[in-house]
Amino acid sequence: MSTQQDLRERRRQRLRFQLRRKGGGRPRLSVFRSGKNIYAQVIDDAAGRTLAAASSLDKALREQLKTGADSDAATAVGKLVAERAVAAGVTQVVFDRGSYLYHGRIKALAEAAREGGLAF
After folding, report:
1. Is 5 helix (H, G, I), strand (E, B) or coil?
2. Class of the 4-115 domain?
């Protein structure tokens, strides 16, 4: 019987395969959430480098936020990563939610990134 971690890894790999197929060479907006913080980065898989990144641990956000693990923090991180990506010249991305459902903090981050100027 597969463990929960094995199932999560399979779900992550299945999603990444679909993103590579349908992404058309666009950079990937990857999201990771922990119990205490949320992280987002725009990754160019062809070159293998990160173009822009933001997290609830950034000094500017940490002072404003009550906690790094709620929807307000996710919204702030989404706006910040979109701002940094647009400054780096990226406007079209593919959203990689990892093994997380598109709900709650993940959805809040995605909507804030769209409002910030990223198209996906």
Report:
1. helix
2. alpha beta
Q: Using N-to-C axis directions, what is the helix angle for 105-115 and 71-87, rounded to 10°?
A: 40
Q: What is the DSSP letter of 114?
A: H
Asked if 43 and 49 count as a contact pair (C-beta separation under 8 A), the reply is yes
Please give the model's pTM, rounded to 2 decimal places: 0.90
Strand, coil or helix: what is 92?
Answer: strand
Considering only residues 81 and 3, tell me which one the structure prediction assigns the higher pLDDT: 81
The amino acid that residue 55 corresponds to is S
Amino acid at 25: G
pLDDT digits (tens, 9 = 90+) for 38-59: 999 999 999 999 999 999 999 9
Distance in Å from the first CA to the final CA of the chain: 36
* 74 has pLDDT over 80: yes
Instruction: For 49, list phi and psi in degrees, rounded to 5.
Output: -140, 160
The strand ranges marked E within 1-120 are: 28-33, 38-44, 49-55, 94-96
